């Protein structure tokens, strides 16, 4: 299965350069898009697991391709680079942009608070925090994280805000969310785990409301 898939990718995808080989597959067969999508998905899943286990600098493109049972050249074709693959894994694992855009703007502080509380009380932090925790020291990853945070968090927040200094307010709210990572790595989450979830949600709602408000609460 894996060998046949690699042969299809090499021989009959026109974007590799040059015309397709008419003898590469039987006429009328229409499974190439599905094959490409399946391979792409395997690469993303393999990268997610390996980055989470070894960190960005501990993983090579060849390791990812081998784990996905795919041709190493496909990593560069589909994602451009290892950093591009890391960025796409982040994109697929993050639900923040959808959370921000869904629902009424008036309830946004509460939704953000509930998101943070869910993250605090999650038994398994999931692949995204593990990837970031084990990769954040890499300069390449820092650049990817900066762009990712801008695209999925700051920009969607700015789009929901009215009034002056929208970007500064969005950045402040983003800091409340992204600060969970350093807190988890350095201090741990024990004290927050022990807090009552309803009270923690209320406190965080007040913090997000203050951060996003066009006026300083009196």
TrEMBL record:
Residues 28-37 have a biased composition (Basic and acidic residues). Residues 60-79 bind DNA. The keyword DNA-binding applies. Residues 37-97 form the HTH tetR-type domain. InterPro entries: DNA-bd_HTH_TetR-type_CS, Homeodomain-like_sf, HTH-type_TetR-like_transc_reg, HTH_TetR, Tet_transcr_reg_TetR-rel_C_sf, TetR_C_16. Pfam families: TetR_C_16, TetR_N. Residues 1-37 are annotated as: Disordered. It comes from the Bacteria. Keywords: DNA-binding. This is HTH tetR-type domain-containing protein. It comes from Actinomadura keratinilytica.
């Amino acid at each position: 299965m894996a060998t046949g898939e690699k042969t299809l990718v090499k021989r009959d995808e026109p974007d590799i350069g040059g015309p397709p080989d008419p003898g590469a597959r039987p006429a009328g067969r229409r499974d190439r898009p599905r094959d490409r999508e399946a391979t792409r998905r395997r690469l993303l899943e393999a990268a997610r697991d390996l980055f989470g286990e070894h960190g960005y600098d501990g993983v090579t493109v060849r390791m990812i391709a081998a784990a996905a049972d795919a041709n190493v050249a496909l990593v560069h074709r589909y994602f451009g680079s290892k950093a591009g693959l890391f960025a796409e894994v982040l994109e697929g694992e993050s639900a923040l942009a959808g959370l921000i855009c869904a629902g009424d703007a008036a309830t946004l502080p509460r939704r953000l608070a509930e998101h943070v509380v869910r993250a605090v009380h999650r038994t398994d932090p999931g692949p995204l925090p593990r990837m970031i925790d084990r990769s954040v020291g890499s300069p390449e990853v820092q650049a990817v994280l900066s762009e990712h945070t801008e695209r999925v968090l700051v920009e969607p927040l700015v789009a929901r805000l009215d009034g002056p200094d929208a970007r500064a307010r969005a950045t402040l709210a983003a800091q409340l969310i992204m600060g969970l990572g350093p807190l988890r790595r350095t201090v741990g989450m024990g004290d927050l785990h022990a807090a009552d979830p309803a009270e923690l949600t209320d406190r965080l709602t007040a913090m997000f409301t203050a951060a996003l408000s066009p006026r300083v609460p009196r």
